[in-house]
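During the no-cost extension, the postdoctoral fellow (Dr. R.K.) reprocessed legacy sequence entries with the updated structure-token encoder. One reprocessed record is reproduced below for audit purposes.
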Amino acid sequence: METTGAVLPRPPLVRSVPVVGPVRPFLGDVLPFLNETRAAYGDAFRLRMVNLELTCLMGQDAIALLQADTGLRTSTSMHVLDEEMQSHLPSMIDGPNRQAIRRSHHQFMNHSLESTRRADIQDWLDEHTARWQPGVRLDVLSEAQTQTVDVLSRLLNGEPFPFSKRELGLVVHTMIWATFGHAPRAVLRNPAYRSVQRRMRAHLLDLVAKIRSDPERVASTLVGHYLSFPPPPELGEWTDADLVSVPYGAYLAGFDTVASAASFLLYRLLSNPDALARVRAEHDELSDDAAGPVDPAAQKFLRAAFTETVRLNPPGSVVLRFVERDLEFAGYRLRTGDEVLVVIASDHLDPQVFDDPQRFDPERFLRPGAADLKRRVLPFGSGIHRCTGAALGELIAVEMVSNWVNRFDLELDLGRRGLRATARPFTQPSGLRARVVARRTD
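Re-encoded structure tokens follow.
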């Protein structure tokens, strides 16, 4: 809400190590730290880290402020993406035309897209798992990233992913840190990054030109979908240079978030044999009646396990925003230009919302009243800036893990250090390894 005439105090400043501040919790699983700090300081508090001051907002009022699409903006640095991609589209997705553009994304990236290509998706996943023979040790996150990006590239761009996972990771993370992470612009001059970025942009310009000239590819790709609705007035026309950021999105989408969620889901299933047995029994039952591959949307227990997984291990616990005008929140003053972290996972570990919140219990999302609980789990953002591929991303994650556990017997192989959560910048499982025991009968 707008600030009142009264002089409101600033949110309290969390006590921490001078200068450095609470950096360490933000390099791992930050959610427990934020919940502990909330218990001590309330729903609004400030953090100072490496000469930065951030205000954390928690609770349902913070989510409501995020969803209102007024008072907060996404970034002050979207021009960085514009310049790096040499496209005006990134700022437009964050600008006044965002509702129309995001609506178009939702229209294309939905369950219908997955259902019409389901047999293809299974074939693509099988291509990746063809080398999974008994005794093979898997880096689960790496496998998830590689398979996610390839499936999304084929679905949205109409081509197999043409770069290495390492090259994509370099481009993705450099852009993210330069745009949102306060990294100096010098990171964009990294010769390795510049080399990959030039090759990637040249390839995508060629891809856009090929799609534009092929009616069949226009009808089946996200770039083609952009061509089907009028460009924003300030753009005038869809140029290849502007559209180059669209296939970028297909490469970036899910590289960290969907792959991380799928990796943690596999970990939870392999750690809970009863849940894994139920996933397999459900899949077998659905297979008896399915004319082709099983619909991931019909795998209700597996989807409940996915929701429970991202409740416990959300790919992103916070979203970064900037205050557009002076606001009042929880009795405190937020100033224009303040950098705020809205904790979208505020309720995930709240015992008043989730009974025994640390326990992995997919069944909680199948009981009466589950719809209200599901609305409290926000793994892919909330409001107008929620990830436009969230629905498709969940389907791909569920379908991928279903493929793994129903076609293979796998066992965890974590090593001495075990599983660790790291932020790069999204929360990912580090040290998650699995060993192929046997290939199951199809």
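DSSP finds 20 helices and twelve strands in the chain. Residues 191-212 form the longest helix (22 residues). The remaining legacy entries will be reprocessed before the final report is submitted.
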